[in-house]
User: What shape does this take?
Amino acid sequence: MGDNRGYLLPMAIIFVLLTSIMGLGILYLGGNEQIAALKRYHREKAFYIAEAGLNRAFAYKRDNENWHPETNAVPFADGTFLVTESVQGDSIIFTSEGNYKNAQVRVSMETYRSPGSGGKAGGSFGQGLFGSQSVTLYQNAWVDSYDSRLGPYGPSNRGNNGDTGSKGAITLYNNAHVYGKAMVENGPQYLTLYHGATVTDSDLYHSFGEPLDNLPSVVVPSDLASLPYPVQGDPRIGGTYTISSGKLTVYNNKVITISGGDFRFKSITMNNNSIVYITGNSRFYIESALALSNNSQVIIQNNSTVIWYLGNQGTSFTPTLANNSIINNASSTPGNLRIYIASSTNLTLANNAVAFNGTIYAPSSSITLANNSQFYGGIVGKNLTVVNNASVHYDTALRDITFPEDPGKGATGPGIRVIIQWRKPDWQGRIN
Assistant: This one.
């Protein structure tokens, strides 16, 4: 019995010593891990403070190129950031050091301001289709491209250059497609694709530059706006029609021919299979309404160039192309039919209004292609909507053409500043 007591006592002492050592080791390791975790937290907090400084600097510089970072540290989220800039021509590299407790993290951002697109070939139509506030494609609608210089649109003249842009949002629903680049200005949250919708490519921080940054207004030429209205029997208008106080009406299978020249109309109304042939270069100023319905047609012949001004600033205008009505640019060259909408209105190319070859510039209006409509050429507007099974075929020839009356042809400007590259510490450096 005494021998057993002598054996157990040393064992108990050894056990107590071992457990004490283990406990102290655990406390030591736990304390070190807690200290390391706190240091990691401080570095992460410093990183996000530095990143906030960069975002702030970019936003201020984009809004005002004359802004420069403060020379002193700026308080933020219980820490501070200090931003410096390195100017290299139109490129600026911002570097931000975030400080939190005893942690410092430095990040940088390279930005670039494009020279804009003013004065370049293409003018308003040089960057593809454009809706300043929005572009929306619904079920099975699509945008692609062709080159009218190579002939009509078809299997051998079809491309993936249907570039589509908006300073607001681009949204594609159910199997809609942009066979080209979808371009938005302020990040991925402004390009949304639902249920099988696709784009060939995207530019989520696109710098549109002028004239698309600030779409110039349409100004009706003063010589057109001051013309007298045509009267019944005008020698330039042949066929059966009525015209009164500038209101031209063609109805019930009637056919008229308008030769070249400049015209000012109060309105033009066509219905029930009526046809208007335009046989020479002409400019139209239509003040209040254009209505084509029930299989009526405007057919442009002899490779004529036709320019229409619809409405005027501060006035109302009602345009309608419906029920298989057609504006048929027989040359299939979109640049031969150019429509400028000066009023704030909604233009709808409705159900099967096919064979539209032309350009539409409508800076304060919405353009809608309804079910099964087709459009060949270029569109610039406020809102562009392409509804079920409708399609837009952008003519890439427009990139190389500047129309003399295009409101955006002479626009100049510096473009806007965009982010080219972020430079951040690697993850291993941030957690060690």
